[in-house]
Amino acid sequence: MNEGAKGLGTALMNILVDFVCRELNKEKIILNVFSWNIGAIKCYEKVGFVQTNKPIEVMKVGNEEWEIMEMAKNGVTGRN
Length: 80
What we know:
- The protein is built from two helices and four strands, in the order αβαβββ.
- By secondary structure, it is α+β, with helices and mostly antiparallel strands.
- Strands 1, 2, 3 and 4 form a four-stranded antiparallel beta sheet that branches.
- The radius of gyration is 14 Å and the shape is globular.
């Protein structure tokens, strides 16, 4: 990984979450991520996302099966 980009994903996710909260006035954000994408999962967790109770789905990609997990950020507030 390029050391100059370290933390960039978290910073961008914080901006995106702030936009969704303030401009779209959402109280909950839900996303899906492939279970093998540990870097993305760690980034989402840093921003406050947690895995939901939704069962992991499986997607066929070529000869492989990729697991998809759902994550959510609750308690998101709108404009103050």
